[in-house]
TrEMBL record, chain A:
Belongs to the iron-sulfur cluster assembly SufBD family. Coiled coil: none annotated. It comes from Agathobacter ruminis. InterPro entries: Fe-S_cluster_assembly_SufBD, SUF_FeS_clus_asmbl_SufBD_core, SUF_FeS_clus_asmbl_SufBD_sf. This is ABC transporter permease. GO terms for biological process: iron-sulfur cluster assembly.
UniProtKB/TrEMBL annotation, chain B:
Keywords: ATP-binding, Nucleotide-binding. This is ABC transporter ATP-binding protein. InterPro entries: AAA+_ATPase, ABC_transporter-like_ATP-bd, ABC_transporter-like_CS, Molybdenum_import_ModC, P-loop_NTPase. Residues 2-237 form the ABC transporter domain. It comes from the Bacteria. The keyword Nucleotide-binding applies. PROSITE patterns: ABC_TRANSPORTER_1 (PS00211), ABC_TRANSPORTER_2 (PS50893). One of its GO terms (molecular function) is ATP binding.
Length: 308, 251
């Protein structure tokens, strides 16, 4: 495929499930440079004039197409800030796969900060998948700070799946969304931290249009000495519905701070939040042990299921 | 065959030792369905948990096919051939019914094979195989799935702790059929059910009565059941334990 080494290919598999060149439009960024870019008739990917990111334009009524824009970094000591803007035409229906993998075998920190902005036209449906993954035995940290802004026009919908299971030392995620009439936003975040990792996740969702809805669910596991903060604010400015849920398993000496917040500025705004943090229930482990699993195997199964 | 020899189990209750199980010796032979009954608080569930290894006896010995398993862990006992169905089945977020059945068999079985175990407990397999074992399932549905996992495990001895608890009458009638079918296919294994339901006692080969932690009576169904009728040890199905009708999907 592209001019990439084996480690880069492995990272690509981890973050984008890519085993070969993806179908449809794509841009693969490796160590700060584009390793390959393809536009299609309906999806145009252009570098920004400033050279620090991409502009992706999806034509109205584009159906069943996909865009892959994964990033892989294998050099120690790289720090980059990238802006990617997505303009999604009316009634388009596409899948966007992003994600970043860092392999750092060196002693210097490697950091990728990606700012994604989505301008979603009327009636468009977007499925967005973003996976983060880190590997490498170096002492340099693997740092990812994703910023996501979503501007949704009337009757549009967006489903975001954000996953970070392994290897990222520090992450500070900020997600902002503004929803017009009948726009629908679904966010599923899955996170596992271990070692001395830190993961911060901030959400600010503004339900501005009548009939808009947001459903934000975070499932996370904090192991070893890791720290997580989940801070989600839903603001209802019209007759709308919103739900936010933080469901977390804590293990070892992990720390989790959940700060769900709701703000209703309209009498017909219906907002709900739930937050639960706890260790794995003893009965769950015992049940799996009665099926022949060891305690460690039972824990692993429970966590895998929880984060599935 | 399972043998309990002089099993005693004590707990420390507010500073003083309390005997929950008192010197019980008991044999569960192969090819038999044995029901342990007796008044509430008599130690029935504790005995089941001692057999599964969830609790360890204060003294005494547990033998499975002649091998001493008293000091084995829950996992090792499961591997040796002890299956256990919880009185209150556990819920798991994210783990699907199929995952649980697959773990129970310890093999990479197909969806089709897993579905057979659900059908065997009267659930419409296609409606449940992908469901998460979470709070979206009713008590009756969970109970049947719990029993399906024990069926899937195919144990030398399968222990069911009060299978009737927390389920509706409709599900209960169905469960009786499930146990009758298990009884018919018992070859070279045995079934132990903790229950005080008359209809379950009616399908037992042997009945054991436990009271105040002691073995009060033991013998064939014909011998024991008549003396239990009308007592708390043999309750007609309409009187106890049942909740309102649930809506488990059957094919």
């Amino acid at each position: 495929m592209l001019e990439m080494d084996e480690i880069q290919k492995r990272l690509l598999r981890e973050v984008a499930d890519l085993h070969k060149v993806p179908e449809g439009a794509y841009n693969i960024r490796a160590n700060g440079e584009s390793a390959g870019r393809v536009s299609t008739e309906n999806i145009e990917i252009e570098p920004r004039e400033s050279g620090d990111g991409l502009t992706i334009r999806i034509k109205p009524n584009t159906k069943n197409e996909s865009v892959h824009i994964p990033v892989v970094m294998t050099k120690s000591g790289i720090k980059e800030l990238v802006y990617n803007d997505f303009y999604v035409g009316e009634n388009a229906d596409v899948t966007i796969v992003a994600g970043c993998g860092i392999d750092n075998c060196g002693s210097q920190d490697s950091e990728h900060d990606g700012i994604h902005r989505f301008f979603i036209g009327k009636g468009a449906n977007i499925r967005y998948v973003e996976k983060h993954y880190g590997s490498g035995s170096g002492s340099g940290k693997r740092i990812l700070n994703p910023g996501t802004e979503v501007y949704m026009e009337a009757d549009s919908s967006m489903e975001m799946e954000m996953v970070q299971i392994k290897g990222v030392d520090d992450t500070n995620r900020t997600t902002k969304a503004e929803l017009a009439e009948n726009a629908k936003l679904v966010i599923r975040e899955r996170l596992m931290t271990h070692g001395d990792q830190n993961a911060l996740s901030f959400y600010d969702v503004q339900l501005n249009g009548e009939g808009s809805s947001a459903d934000l669910v975070s499932r996370s596991v904090a192991r070893d000495n890791s720290y997580q903060k989940f801070d989600a604010t839903l603001t209802g400015n019209a007759a709308c519905s919103g739900h936010t849920e933080c469901d977390a398993i804590i293990m070892d000496k992990g720390t989790i701070l959940a700060v769900p917040a709701l703000e209703a500025n309209d009498v017909d705004a219906a907002l709900v939040h739930e937050a639960a943090i706890g260790k794995i229930a003893g009965d769950q482990i015992i049940k799996l042990m009665t099926l022949g699993l060891t305690e460690a195997e039972a824990e692993e199964q429970i966590i895998n299921g929880f984060l599935k | 065959m399972l043998e309990l020899k002089n099993i005693t189990f004590q707990v420390n209750d507010e500073g003083s030792d309390k005997e929950i199980i008192r010197d019980i010796s008991l044999t569960i032979p192969d090819d038999k369905l044995v029901v342990i009954t007796g008044p509430n608080g008599g130690g029935k569930s504790t005995l089941a948990r001692l057999i599964a290894g969830i609790e360890k006896p204060t003294s005494g010995q547990i033998l499975l096919d002649g091998e001493d398993i008293t000091n084995l862990s829950i996992t090792d006992r499961a591997k040796k051939g002890i299956g256990f169905a919880f009185q209150q089945p556990v819920r798991f977020k994210g783990i699907q019914v199929f995952d649980l059945i697959k773990l129970a068999t310890g093999t990479n079985l197909s969806v089709g094979e897993a579905c057979q175990f659900l059908s065997a407990v009267g659930l419409c397999a296609r409606d449940y195989i992908d469901r998460e074992v979470n709070s979206s399932l009713s008590g009756g549905e969970l109970k049947r799935i719990e029993i399906a996992t024990v069926l899937a495990k195919a144990s030398r001895l399968s222990v069911f702790d009060e299978p009737e608890a927390g389920i509706d009458l409709w599900s209960f009638q169905n469960l009786i059929e499930v146990f009758q079918n298990m009884r018919e296919q018992i070859h070279d294994s045995s079934i132990l059910i903790i229950s005080h339901q008359e209809r379950i006692l009616n399908i037992a080969d042997e009945i054991v009565v436990l009271k105040d932690g002691k073995l009060e009576k033991q013998g064939s169904r014909e011998e024991i059941l008549p003396s239990l009728m009308g007592t708390a040890s043999a309750v007609p199905e309409c009187r106890k334990n049942f909740v309102a009708k649930e809506d488990a999907q059957e094919c």
